[in-house]
Amino acid sequence: MTSSSPTTFLRALRDLDLPDHPEAVVVDGRALSRAGLRAVAVAFGARLPDAGPVAVFAEPTLETVVAVSGCLLAGVPVVPVPPDAGPAETAHVVTDSGATCWAGPPREGVDLPVVEVPTVADDVPARDRPDDLPAPVAETETAIVLYTSGTTGAPKGVVLSHRALRTGIEGLADAWGWTGHDVVAHGLPLFHTHGLVLGVLGSLHLGSRVVHTGRPTPQAYAATPATVYFGVPTVWTRVARDPEAARALSGARLLVSGSAPLPVPVFERLRELTGHALVERYGMTETMITLSTRADGERRPGWVGLPVGEARTRLRAEDGHEVPADGETVGRLEVSGPMLFDGYLNLPETTAEVLGPDGWFATGDLAVVDADGFHRIVGRESVDLIKSGGYRIGAGEIETSLLALPEVQEVAVLGLPDEDLGQRIVAYAVVAPEDADDALAARMVEHVAADLSWHKRPREVRFVPSLPRNAMGKVQKKLMLDVPG
Fold this sequence. Notes:
The protein is of the alpha/beta class. 27% of the residues lie in helices and 24% in strands. It is built from 14 helices and 24 strands. Strands 2-1-9-8-10-11-12-13-14 form a nine-stranded mixed sheet. Strands 15-16-18-19 form a four-stranded antiparallel sheet, with no helix packed on it. Helix 5 (162-176) crosses helix 6 and helix 8 crosses helix 10 (264-274). The longest helix is centred in the middle third of the chain and has 15 residues, at 162-176. 51% of the residues are buried. The model has no long low-confidence stretch (mean pLDDT 91).
């Protein structure tokens, strides 16, 4: 990236001449206008002790929206911390990111100065209210560091610039016809790309209203009038099982699914109930959204469409040559464009493994493309990345956590197909025969939930006498897919 122009990200939040609404941002029933949000966000930014980064306890509240917006307006990098992260994961994120202060309630593993987050103008004394926005930083400056699970080890910090966020959002605006006239509704977490960057920050950039429903239940979605609904396949599967809730979404302009593959039967059932063919899209924390079906184009179940905005894609065979665009030949998906991340924080060697000097990023996913440029994701090169309930979860960190238990001699974690979650986390553990009981299995689940995150807990524990290994001692997980439960 070479641009050094001032950032214009969060354009609609910066420009108070645009039409406003008293409920421009609603989170679990609490609302702010854009002018109100801007006032308290700027006040929060003025309270920051230095240039950050700022670790934000990213629960689904107005406080999170204010803190994240305040950091971005002030040009200070923001680090969203998952609210279900255990002490070990929280401590890693805070330490690895170099955060200099904390926004949120006290947490174990955090020893940083706390900056209070105002949520209404009355919370800000007149003497502490800045007259105007801080001077904009360069677009190439870091905006946000999102931590994502790798296939091994601790979560990695994905560094995204203001330019990456802006160009990614503007590409989606073009693909989806997303404007300030829309109302976006979702109930997704506010510590990753889908819920925070797209759902909230995208709306604040484009001027649309955004309503966070709290929990993403079919009833909550049905009770929230909107033109665009975001959901992960788990949410849409549950909506499809509730015909009354599904029919309530018929008046929407778009229903958008992402973060994991949407089962074709769910796509078809929702089309039957709502009259809408869902928009499916593909992206990663490292790439923003790079592929999507369009609001004004074909929506083919199981396919994630065309490159978005300035994104470019290519599919490479094992020999490095591009595969034919025949809709059948599988290739390794690589992407390029201004919406790409700048690298993994503090991990230059890991970054160099996937982000080449030519600007192309190796996603690790396999795909096919047809003659019209339509893409379909067919799988992951590795079996170690689990997609469960819309989360991308690394098996390695769960294995590391479980091996801390003295009874666990060996362990391998896999994602097995699940109708509701997409994949469910299953732990295969080698323990002494006398320890292999339901009590230990329950304790293993509880340990991961407390040590890492609730959504990373195994949904099932299977005790096995041994793990299959190759001559080099590496566990052969593909062979374990046939191990009976």
